[in-house]
Amino acid sequence: MLDSPMKPVSIGLLGLGTVGCGTVNVLVRNANEITRRAGRAIEIGMAATRDPARDRGCDTSGFELVQDPLEVVESPQVEVVVELIGGEQNAKDLMLRAINNRKHVVTANKALIAVHGNEIFEAAQMKKVMVAFEAAVGGGISIIKTIREGLAGNRIEQIAGIINGTANFVLTGMRDQDRDFAAVLADAQRLGYAEADPSFDIKGIDAAHKLTILAAIAFGIPLQYDKVYTEGIGQLTRDDIKHAGELGYQIKHLGIARRNRDGIEMRVHPTLIPQRRLIANVDGVMNAILVCGDAVGPTIHYGAGAGADPTASAVVADIVDVVRALTTDPENRVPHLAFQPGTLASVDIVAPDEFETAYFLSLTAVDRPGVLADVTRILGDLKISIEAILQKEPPGNDDTVPVIILTQRTRERYMNQAVSKIEALAAITQRVKRIRVEHFND
Amino acid sequence: MLDSPMKPVSIGLLGLGTVGCGTVNVLVRNANEITRRAGRAIEIGMAATRDPARDRGCDTSGFELVQDPLEVVESPQVEVVVELIGGEQNAKDLMLRAINNRKHVVTANKALIAVHGNEIFEAAQMKKVMVAFEAAVGGGISIIKTIREGLAGNRIEQIAGIINGTANFVLTGMRDQDRDFAAVLADAQRLGYAEADPSFDIKGIDAAHKLTILAAIAFGIPLQYDKVYTEGIGQLTRDDIKHAGELGYQIKHLGIARRNRDGIEMRVHPTLIPQRRLIANVDGVMNAILVCGDAVGPTIHYGAGAGADPTASAVVADIVDVVRALTTDPENRVPHLAFQPGTLASVDIVAPDEFETAYFLSLTAVDRPGVLADVTRILGDLKISIEAILQKEPPGNDDTVPVIILTQRTRERYMNQAVSKIEALAAITQRVKRIRVEHFND
Prior knowledge:
The structure is a homodimer of 442-residue chains. Helix content of chain A is 36%, strand content 24%. The first copy, chain A, has 442 residues and is an alpha/beta fold.
């Protein structure tokens, strides 16, 4: 570990709802990796919640629970306040008070930043504290960092994003199940993807908050939520979605910000997108943001836009950012290899024999009975399960046929043995070609 | 602009090839936006190139051209050295010399970082300078920053990337044109997507360099290029690609780094991926990297992996990172809204009337001759071109039929006029529904 461990940074949480508990869980679960990255341990000092007695799915035994959020923002021991209570006025008051007390602030509150951000940032500037808000847009996708830093060389031309997972879930459901808006929305509410009062998501208000933030950081303009043109998805029917599909389009609820010759367009509305576009294939609660810069061209940033852990991922990244800035010299802010030198792990690199994948095997076999039985027996003896077999017509120039076999996952050394044995069969006339198969899970 | 303009940062370029010239062009073209973001102007002080007289597609009149790269790394005026000459030994010597002279270094050289990075970073640590290498992986995609900072709260589980555009271009061409490897590779060479000696790309060496870097920053392990298992794409046939397609898979050349129970797998090889996965649909020279973290879940980062401007985008982002660290207090490193306070622009926000989009119109019309002629005349009079018309069968419960019209781009105010006139037609029995259409360009 670190040669000279510094005192941990103490953070104070406002709110222990879904995202608050996710943040506690991620900080505790990944404490070791986070400390190795940040150069300093991060410790939850206290958390404010209306009902401290309620069981909430995270371990609160390691820190003080209080009911009054003011206790957190006034606590001399708290260095970073993490605001996760949502809403506008109360959150704003608490945040300004924290800033006034020279505490750094991390927030996931898009409404607050979109509507009051100009005022909040000015206060932070004066008090020389950081206000970080990566979790406000795109959940776990680090789109704020990407635009503010990763694309800093570009003149940004356009942003278009699926930035509300609830709306995308409803539209995907209407298409896949050929059902009406109201029915799918009811499902979403049952599954916890939509609030009891879903109007923020369904009417596009949440997306407009997020678009306000994206447009400001992309174009270098103030936050101007009141100028976003906003349309929801409540008017869409299953027929609209079907007709769009027949024409080769998907309907997605997009936030779009773009330069045109008159200025900057900011708009949130249902949008037809050609089916072949990657962003048209972002389904369910996932988010994706297309950013086009004059140098980089089109880029897409895809991931979970909501949920306890993905949002916590962004909150913790912001906390690490703050800690890195507080802790190290500017030139060592981010370690070259992400983790502090001296904390790199000596983990075994796996030998190819121990790789685990599925396989595509292409065999050339003499076209006679029994060959397939021999091959499948060899695979079976090595406990390699077969997913599919494709026996092709003979190409015609000799008496051999191509046989394609798709297997399930196995260790590479078993496959090596299988291939040797298959190649030793008299009916197999060429080397077996194998290509690994990965299914992933995006 | 800034209240107290600071002295510009002077950078020195090593190499004025494709990426070097791209970097000059981006720095010059976007000087205003970059200065507003970085808080300080960035100036090219000098550049080293073997043949200063050659015309190279960028304006070199603003800075000194020298032939000996040592002049750049020894120049007292240069604060940041940008290494874009490629290769290993010479680049390494120059970089270590620059570090020794306490200059910060930005590089796009993946071979150098993958093979000699451990040594280079140690030297940089001792001399307290930054070595930035965003452009080394994924071209303009800011994947290094995303993993090192944006996902800093996660235990990373897996990375899988299409990280060599040349190989992806060849595989896409083999599939789309049903042609052999050698023929498509020859095309790629003609088009400038592959080198005269393409072995670095085709044999997977370039991808292995990049994977080495990604694995190190994801898992907190040293750079270990010699432990990457590497297979190229030269053995793949059009039949392999066809058979994979029949089974519902695409073949992509992937770099994969993943934890398994024995340690970490690092491997580069052709891989079958189910067609429905987003990453299976990344075609041509584009790159995409799937990163799975325990908190964030799956994320995908997509963009141009090579080329002058996209690579320059990453190089300039690194330069801005260095300048921000050198220039501002840690807590002001990145301005809240990306651009320095006081440099926010007052740009007009476009009124909805002036939005420009294509439209999907859904009409309900009495099923009689002449209606379509009336509608198309109204659109034509307003210079709104029609892309497609879909006239549906009557649903059967009355004598109306749904008519779907897809238009080309127009200003919203013309569409407003058109819709008013269409709704005034006697044969149109309901409000016209309109949904905007965007084609994008990913």
